[in-house]
Amino acid sequence: MLTIGDFSRLSRITPRMLRHYDALGLLRPEEVRDNGYRYYRQEQLSDLMRIQWLKGYGFSLGEIGALLALDNAQLLLRLRQRRLALYQELNRQQGLIHQIEADILRMEGTSMIETPYHVVLIEDPEQKVFSIRDTIGVDQFHDFFERLYQEAGARGLTQAGPIQMLYHDEEFNPKRSDVEAQMVVAQDGPDVTIKPACTCAAVQHRGAYENLHQAYDALCAWLGEHTEYRMCGPAMDRYFGDPDNTPVDQLETGVLFPVEKV
Question: What is the CATH number of domain 2-67?
Answer without folding.
Answer: 1.10.1660.10
